[in-house]
Write a structure and sequence with these properties.
Length: 186
């Protein structure tokens, strides 16, 4: 299988934000943007893999700025990293107000997808041809992100499985909740 460059599968999806996409406050629903992120990630991943792909996880979905009805939203997707059967697609979301010609970077998300073969099993994807330092930086960042995610997941899982509710109830003090059941020592 020949390596494929980042350029080979780079994809952009531009969509007009119509009133049907808005919430009661007049801003665009986060779910609409998530759906567009998933679509452009699929486009980019399946082009690189030459196969059907499925979404495994989405990282970094922080909506930093609201998107308005009438904005043109462009989602720029490129392969940041490939494993054996998985790919990480980086997606930069830009909202453009065509009347005052301003552009806002609303978020950058990272979608992990897995390529599937005809038997519906994960299938090997081509290696990524890194053509410049930016391509290499994104690949290295994805490795770091994956390492930190695994470390964080292990630490979180350990903390959760060891969490004794009775002994930790004191930590709720100062938080905006009320213990509404009768405790054993009460
Ligand atoms: C994705 C899926 C095929 C992985 O199955 P699996 O039995 O874990 O398969 P494997 O162990 O062979 O892993 C396949 C790849 O997925 C990666 N992977 C699995 N779980 C992952 C996770 N939570 N986050 C990131 N990558 C993950 C593995 O690291 C591996 O990557 P690599 O081949 O590049 O090393 C399976 O979980 C699946 O089908 N999920 C449903 C996906 C779907 O339907 N999405 C649409 C949303 S409804």
């Amino acid at each position: 299988m020949e390596p494929r460059s980042v350029r080979y599968s780079q994809s952009t999806l531009t969509e007009l934000m119509i009133p049907a996409y808005a919430n009661f406050g007049g801003k665009i629903h986060g779910g609409i943007l998530l759906s567009l992120i998933d679509k452009v990630a699929y486009t980019c991943a399946s082009r690189h893999a030459g196969a059907y792909c499925v979404t495994v996880s989405v990282d970094g979905v922080d909506f930093l700025q609201p998107v308005e009805v009438g904005d043109l939203v462009s989602l720029h997707a490129s392969v940041n990293y490939v494993g054996r059967t998985s790919l990480v697609i980086g997606i930069r979301v830009i909202a453009e107000n065509v009347r005052n010609r301003t552009q806002r970077h609303t978020n950058t998300s990272y979608v992990t997808m897995v390529a599937k073969g005809d038997n519906d099993k994960p299938t090997v994807v081509p290696e990524l041809l890194l053509e410049n330092e930016d391509d290499a930086r994104r690949f290295l960042e994805a490795i770091k992100r994956r390492e930190l995610r695994e470390k964080y997941k292990d630490a979180f899982d350990n903390a959760i499985t060891r969490l004794d509710v009775q002994h930790n109830l004191g930590q709720l003090t100062g938080h905006r909740c009320v213990v509404g059941w009768k405790r054993k020592e009460d």
